[in-house]
Amino acid sequence: MSRFRVLTASEQVAEHLREQLARGIWTGTMPGGERLSRDLGVGRMTVEAALILLENEGLLVPQGVGRKRLIHMPKRIAAPSLRVKILLYAPEDSKIYYNVDMQHRLLNAGHHASFASKTLVELGMDKGRLARFVENSPADAWVVSSGSREVLEWFADHHLPTFALAGRRRNVRIASTGPDKEPALKTLIQRLVGLGHRRIVMLAREVRRKPVRGSFEQAFLDVLDEHGIQHGDYNMPSWVEDADGLRETLDSLFRHTPPTALIIGESSTFMAVQQHLGQRGIYAPRDVSLVCDDPDPMFAWCRPTVAHIHWDGGPVARRVVRWADNVARGKDDRCRSFINARLIEGGTIGPAPQKG
After folding, report:
1. 51 and 33 in contact (C-beta within 8 Å)?
2. Structural domain contains residue 346
3. Is 299 within 8 Å of 292 (Cβ atoms)?
4. Are residues 87 and 231 in the same domain?
5. Interacting residues of 292 by C-beta distance below 8 A, sequence separation 6+
6. Looking at the whole model, is its pTM more than 0.85?
7. Hey, what's the torsion of the CAs at 318, 26, 42, 194, to 10 degrees?
8. Distance between CA 50 and CA 46 in Å, rounded?
9. How many domains does the chain have?
């Protein structure tokens, strides 16, 4: 079995430039490194290293110091069509914009892409049920969204071409990508503490908490430690992942020592939290600061605008398409990459409410 490797920054830039070249964004000559560095928001040395990689592939031809590189794109050889099943975490995830975009891009690339008829929640994250489901689902390759470590290891152990979209993918030998949200999380906690918040709660899915906490969830507790905030089950409660379970958890949290800030995973859960609290006269940011740890285009339509951790779903979808193309051509693609994320403060963050 081939070992996976994490793409370097220059390799990720080269992948982006390679796709732009294939789409015909530039013809004749390539823009210079200074312009590309400015446009992409990355360092000049990283861009130059990426351009050299494209030179080594024969896509660019150097013409000497101070002169632009010539573009030399061979005729594209279409990849064979692949049957791709997208295994989501929960049924409502089929409406998330980056999942929809990913499916459309796979279809536009000539693959047969469809959402699996069941989700990981409906399969109970049970490996036995998963095995029977996969056996009865005609597919050449699988994209697994927000999978548990046990699920992703099952796919890896069965040598099925699999791509992990987020989830517990660390150290699992399959291709993967997802946002690196920890730097944005640190910025968020620092901002909340600066606004006087001490009772900060994260509502995380069970797959992110068990059997051990994910890196993002552990980073949350570590940052609380850094700011001298003692934490326990209160800060990351267990909850039943359905509408009733969410409401019961919120009612319990706000009954005695209400949190002054809530960090909520997934936009659908965020909206459910906001609605339930509003029905009880609890509003952001007056009574509690609310932050979603995932983006959603509809946040821009909300007033106040929703504070969230933003990342671009486009690179994720493009990476999945490249992986599918590679698998269709017989390449064992196990590369891992990460997408930068940043905090959008929005209007649902405010000072901690005063006691009394």
Report:
1. yes
2. no
3. yes
4. no
5. 263, 264, 265, 266, 267, 270, 299, 306, 307, 308, 309
6. no
7. -60
8. 6
9. 3
Q: State how far the Cα of 48 lies from the Cα of 60, in Å rounded to an integer.
A: 12
CB 283 within 8 Å of CB 302: no
Euclidean distance between CA atoms 181 and 195, whole angstroms: 21
- Residue entry with tokens 């892409």: 113
Q: What is the pLDDT of residues 93-109, one digit of tens each?
A: 998 889 999 999 999 88
Between CA 116 and CA 124 the distance in angstroms is 15
Residue 345 is assigned to a structural domain of this protein? no
3-state helix, strand, coil in the chain (%, to 5): 40, 15, 45
d(CA 152, CA 34): 41
Least confident of 23-27, 308-312, 331-335: 23-27
Strand order across the beta sheet in which 141-145 lies = 112-115, 83-87, 141-145, 162-165, 175-177
Cα distance between residue 274 and residue 295, in whole Å: 16
Under 8 Å between Cβ of 261 and 286: no
Q: Which amino acid is at 59?
A: L
CATH code: domain of residue 293: 3.40.50.2300
Owning domain of residue 325 = 83-179+312-340
Structure tokens at 137: 């689902």
Q: Can you tell me whether residue 19 is helix, strand or coil?
A: helix
Residue 240 shares a structural domain with residue 203: yes
Could you give the CA distance from residue 356 to residue 348 in angstroms, rounded to a whole number? 21
